Amino acid sequence: MIQVNFITASGDKVTAEAEEGFSLLEVGQAAGMPLEGTCEGQMACSTCHVIVDPEWFARLPEAGEEEEDMLDLAAGVQRTSRLSCQIALTGDLDGLEVRIPAESHDLQGV
Ligand code: FES
Asked: Which mutation among 50, 83, 98, 100 tests ligand 1's pocket best, with the greatest number of atoms within 8 A of CB?
């Protein structure tokens, strides 16, 4: 089993267990994270966007051009942003930590 840590927009840590081969999006959804993943991994939306912990970011396979283009459209993108549907879990990623971006409407009430 691979463990993945999600940090919610409000700062809570949620640890999920996953089997190798699942995408980070699937695991996040199963753990109740608010990742819409509208296009189900077709790289046609950006609602599966997560912000990867910088230490882990360097260990992930690089994003392809299509993924980079989609990320340009995602809300709240950061340097270590990735599309979670494009991250396939392997044993190497055991302990991976990603943050769920704050949704834009959360900022309006501040
Ligand atoms: Fe649409 Fe990832 S689910 S780009």
From this structure: 83
